[in-house]
C-alpha cells in the first residue's frame, strides 16, 4: 500500500529547468540565492504585464485553467470602476493527497512565487497580499520568505503581506473558501456565486491564482515572451509541474516542457510498462486507458481531447494487479468525507455516490449501476463549490474507463483482484478537522422500522429493502453531530444511541462532546428514531 506523499518528494526536470532552477544547488533558495540564480526583476505596468501573460498563454495552474490576463484585466477594471485598492491572493492550499507541486515550490522556491505576486500587486496598485497555505512546512517557508524581504502585516506599510493558515481540507483550496478565511470567517465556500475579481478579500476586487501561476509569471517577466515561448508547444508554451504517484517506483514532482509524451513521463517515474489505467488531473480528474495514455502528450488541449484532464497536474498510473474500481472506491469515500457539510449535493450526494460504487462492486448488479449513474448526474452543478462536480466527474470517468472490470462486477462475481491501495490518501486526520469521535448505533432489539432516522441523517442511515436501516452503526462526522443527536432524541422506539468510536484517534475522542447540549437529559442519549 502506498504511503502518503511527503511534503517535498524527489524533484526532477526534463530539459532545462525554469521553475526548478537552483534546486540542484540548495534545498531552499533564500533571497540571496534566489537572486543569484534568477537575477533581479524590474516592475511592470498593468497593461504590459497583462500583455505578457496573454503572449505566453498563461492559464491558472490550480486546475480550472482560467486565462490569467483576463483575470488581471478584470480586477484592474473593477478596482478603477469602484475606486478601491485591489488585493492579491496566492493560493498555496494544495490539499489533495496526490498533489505536491505547489508545496514543493513554496518549500524550495518561495521567492519565485513572491516575485510574480509582487509584480501583480505593483501593477494593480494593491496594498494587501495574502498567501494561503495549509501545511506546517509551507507556512514556515513562506513566513521566512516574507521576513527575508522585510514584508509583514504592519499597519502603515506600503504593502501589507501575511500568510493565511487554513486546515488541510479539499474545500479550503477553493477560491471563495480562501477569501472567506482571509476575512476572518471559516475556511469554507460561502455558497454564493460571486467572482473574486469583483468582490474578494474585504469586498475588494481580488486577483487570486495558485502558486505555480505566479511563479510562471515571474519566469516570463525575466525571460520575455519570445524566449519563454521557445520551450514547449506553440499554443501552450513553457513548462508544467506534475506530481507522479500511484503505481510508480519513485513518486516525484517533475518539471517538463509541454508536448512531452505522457508515456515518457510515466517511464521516468517507474510506472508499469502497460498500466491498467492512468488517472490524470488528480482526484477531480479523469482516467485514461493504457492505449490512450500512450498516445497523449503533456498539455491541457491534448489531455482534454483524449478524455483526460491536466487539472492540478497530478498523474497516477495503476498496474494490472489491482482492482481499479476498488481503488476508485477508496478515493470516492475520501472525497465524500471531505465534504464541508453545507449543501445537500455534497454531504448527501457524495456519500450516496460512494455507497453506490460500493454496491456495484459487491454484487448490486445493473440496478446498482444505474443508481450510481443517477446519483452522479444529480450531484453535478448544484453544489456550493466545485467539489461535488469534480467528484462526480471522477466517478463518471471511473465507470466509463474500466468497462471490462465493471462488467465483471455487475454481471459476474467480480474481477478477482485485490485492492492494493496504490492511490495515496491522507494517513492522518488533517489539523483542525478531527472527527467527532462518535458513532451512531442501532439497537436491533428495539428498532421497529419507523424510518425517521433516515429522514434526519440520510448521510449516515439509509433504509434497506425491508424498510429497516441498512447499517448497524456509522461514524459521525463533525458536520452531522447535531442531526445525529436529533435522530437519537426523536426515535419513538428508543433504538438509537450515540457511542464513543473506539477506532477514533485519542485527540478526536478528547475533542468530542462528552454530553448532550445543555438542557438535554441523560435519557435523551438513548432515544432516537430508527
UniProtKB/TrEMBL annotation:
Keywords on record: 4Fe-4S, Flavoprotein, FMN, Iron, Iron-sulfur, Metal-binding
Biased composition (Low complexity): 504-530
One protein family per Pfam: Fer4_15
Record region (Disordered): 178-202, 502-530
Any one biological process term the GO annotation gives: cellular respiration
NADH-ubiquinone oxidoreductase 51kDa subunit iron-sulphur binding domain location: 325-369
Cofactor(s) named in the record: [4Fe-4S] cluster; FMN
InterPro entries, per the entry: ComplexI_51kDa_subunit, Nuo51_FMN-bd, Nuo51_FMN-bd_sf, Nuop51_4Fe4S-bd, Nuop51_4Fe4S-bd_sf
Gene3D superfamilies: 3.10.20.600, 3.30.70.20, NADH-ubiquinone oxidoreductase 51kDa subunit (3.40.50.11540), NADH-ubiquinone oxidoreductase 51kDa subunit, iron-sulphur binding domain (1.20.1440.230)
Family affiliation: Belongs to the complex I 51 kDa subunit family.
Stored PANTHER family: NADH DEHYDROGENASE [UBIQUINONE] FLAVOPROTEIN 1, MITOCHONDRIAL, NADH-UBIQUINONE OXIDOREDUCTASE FLAVOPROTEIN 1 NDUFV1
Identification of the protein by name: Putative Fe-S, FMN containing oxidoreductase
Organism: Streptomyces formicae
Amino acid at each position: 500500500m502506498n504511503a502518503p506523499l511527503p511534503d517535498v518528494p524527489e524533484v526532477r526536470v526534463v530539459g532545462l529547468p525554469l521553475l526548478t532552477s537552483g534546486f540542484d544547488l540548495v534545498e531552499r533558495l533564500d533571497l540571496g540565492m534566489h537572486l543569484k540564480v534568477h537575477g533581479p526583476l524590474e516592475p511592470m505596468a498593468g497593461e504590459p504585464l497583462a500583455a505578457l501573460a496573454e503572449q505566453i498563454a498563461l492559464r491558472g495552474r490550480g486546475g480550472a485553467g482560467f486565462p490569467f490576463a483576463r483575470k488581471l484585466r478584470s480586477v484592474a477594471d473593477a478596482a478603477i470602476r469602484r475606486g478601491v485598492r485591489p488585493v492579491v491572493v496566492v493560493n498555496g492550499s494544495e490539499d489533495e493527497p496526490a498533489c505536491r507541486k505547489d508545496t514543493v515550490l513554496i518549500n524550495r522556491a518561495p521567492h519565485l512565487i513572491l516575485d510574480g505576486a509582487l509584480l501583480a500587486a505593483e501593477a494593480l496598485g494593491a496594498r494587501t497580499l495574502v498567501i494561503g497555505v495549509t501545511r506546517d512546512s509551507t507556512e514556515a517557508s513562506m513566513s521566512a520568505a516574507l521576513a527575508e524581504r522585510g514584508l509583514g502585516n504592519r499597519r502603515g506599510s506600503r504593502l501589507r503581506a501575511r500568510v493565511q493558515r487554513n486546515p488541510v481540507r479539499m474545500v479550503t483550496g477553493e477560491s471563495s473558501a480562501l477569501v472567506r478565511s482571509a476575512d476572518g470567517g471559516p475556511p469554507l465556500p460561502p455558497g454564493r456565486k460571486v467572482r473574486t475579481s469583483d468582490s474578494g478579500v474585504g469586498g475588494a476586487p481580488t486577483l487570486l491564482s495558485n502558486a505555480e501561476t505566479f511563479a510562471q509569471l515571474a519566469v516570463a517577466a525575466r525571460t520575455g515572451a519570445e524566449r519563454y515561448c521557445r520551450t514547449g508547444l506553440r499554443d501552450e508554451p513553457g513548462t508544467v509541474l506534475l506530481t507522479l504517484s500511484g503505481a510508480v517506483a519513485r513518486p516525484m514532482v517533475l518539471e517538463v516542457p509541454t508536448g512531452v509524451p505522457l508515456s515518457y513521463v510515466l517511464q521516468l517515474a517507474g510506472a508499469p510498462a502497460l498500466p491498467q489505467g492512468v488517472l490524470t488531473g488528480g482526484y477531480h480528474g479523469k482516467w485514461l486507458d493504457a492505449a490512450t495514455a500512450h498516445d497523449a502528450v503533456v498539455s491541457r488541449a491534448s489531455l482534454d481531447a483524449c478524455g483526460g484532464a491536466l487539472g492540478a497536474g497530478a498523474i497516477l498510473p495503476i498496474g494490472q494487479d489491482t482492482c481499479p474500481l476498488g481503488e476508485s472506491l477508496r478515493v470516492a469515500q475520501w472525497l465524500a468525507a471531505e465534504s464541508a457539510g453545507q449543501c445537500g449535493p455534497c454531504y448527501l450526494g457524495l456519500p450516496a455516490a460512494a455507497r453506490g460504487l460500493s454496491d456495484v462492486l459487491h454484487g448490486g448488479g445493473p440496478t446498482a449501476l444505474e443508481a450510481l449513474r443517477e446519483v452522479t448526474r444529480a450531484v453535478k452543478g448544484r453544489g456550493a463549490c466545485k467539489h461535488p462536480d469534480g467528484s462526480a466527474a471522477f466517478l463518471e470517468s471511473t465507470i466509463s474507463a474500466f468497462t471490462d472490470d465493471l462488467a465483471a462486477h455487475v454481471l459476474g462475481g467480480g474481477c478477482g483482484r485485490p485492492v492494493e491501495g496504490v492511490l495515496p490518501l491522507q494517513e492522518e486526520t488533517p489539523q483542525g478537522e478531527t472527527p467527532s469521535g462518535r458513532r451512531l448505533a442501532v439497537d436491533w432489539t428495539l428498532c421497529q422500522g419507523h424510518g425517521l432516522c433516515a429522514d434526519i441523517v440520510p448521510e449516515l442511515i439509509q433504509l434497506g429493502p425491508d424498510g429497516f436501516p441498512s447499517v448497524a452503526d456509522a461514524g459521525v462526522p463533525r458536520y452531522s453531530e447535531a442531526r445525529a443527536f436529533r435522530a437519537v432524541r426523536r426515535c419513538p422506539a428508543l433504538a438509537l444511541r450515540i457511542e464513543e468510536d473506539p477506532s477514533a484517534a485519542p485527540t478526536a475522542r478528547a475533542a468530542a462532546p462528552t454530553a448532550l447540549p445543555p438542557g438535554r437529559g441523560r435519557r435523551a442519549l438513548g432515544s432516537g428514531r430508527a
